[in-house]
């Protein structure tokens, strides 16, 4: 009897231990990633801030049932806007839930943050001059005709963030977006504009809370979205997807020697099997790993369009060859080289 109980304990406990162990020792693209409380990480379309030795991951909370907006002619699947989550980590493997950084609102349907709205692709940067954490995000109506960028601010990285409002930068439509903070402290807003046909880069003001007139059109009529930016060897790299709703497509990238200079479009940075669908995912951010020169993580979302809550994360190493050409290869599981695990 005792040996049967022991066997059951072994069968129940050991696999769980192995799974948990594997999950936290390796990055496993496409798996369900659990936070340190044992719940699936809910941070889609996300971005990462590194501040005071800690990584903060912000993302869209996609919770509850997914439905298709009635009358939509495209695959407009959505969930109630759940606000923006925040998780913290010091090794990029163990993520502690920090709660809801920016709350959505269930009462006022005119509010940008109402659950009926779109709150997507949050990116947070820290402003050294003001001591504030600034979050920019895509704000939209459920038919995506509002096409604006929202901004919120906090004294602490984990929030709570106070929503300030939304704009069409310099009067231009703004949907998918990212923020890039350069080494000199200047910050730039990359956003899909002009009905998603043309990307814009706009320099933010010194406090990062509004747009300057330094607004530049790039990738004109290329129809790119899901921008993710990094700087390598003094060159700027912009990774994007095509515009096919929640369905994946081939990524491409563009480069520039000066961020507000001219950008050259290039082909797909992904290699090997499933490169033509970005491994069934869509870019959201490129993370420079701190303290490891030239080590970058390409972060993407594998959307599950009919069950958005079940969307998964694809993180892969982004490497550059001797000519500065980026390479992204699929990996079943991997560790960040030399990282303390
Ligand atoms: C593609 C965008 O990249 C996503 O963030 C989201 O807005 C979907 N479209 C909606 O279909």
UniProtKB/TrEMBL annotation:
Query: What is this protein's name?
Result: Glycosyl hydrolases family 43
Please report which protein family the annotation says this sequence is part of.
Belongs to the glycosyl hydrolase 43 family.
InterPro entries in the cross-refs? Glyco_hydro_43, Glyco_hydro_beta-prop_sf
Q: Which UniProt keywords apply?
A: Glycosidase, Hydrolase
Originating organism = Chitinophaga rupis
Q: Which GO terms describe its biological process?
A: carbohydrate metabolic process
Gene3D superfamilies, alphabetically? Glycosyl hydrolase domain, family 43 (2.115.10.20)
Key word Hydrolase present: yes
Taxonomic lineage: Bacteria, Pseudomonadati, Bacteroidota, Chitinophagia, Chitinophagales
Against Pfam families, the record matches this protein to: Glyco_hydro_43
State a single Gene Ontology molecular function.
Answer: hydrolase activity, hydrolyzing O-glycosyl compounds
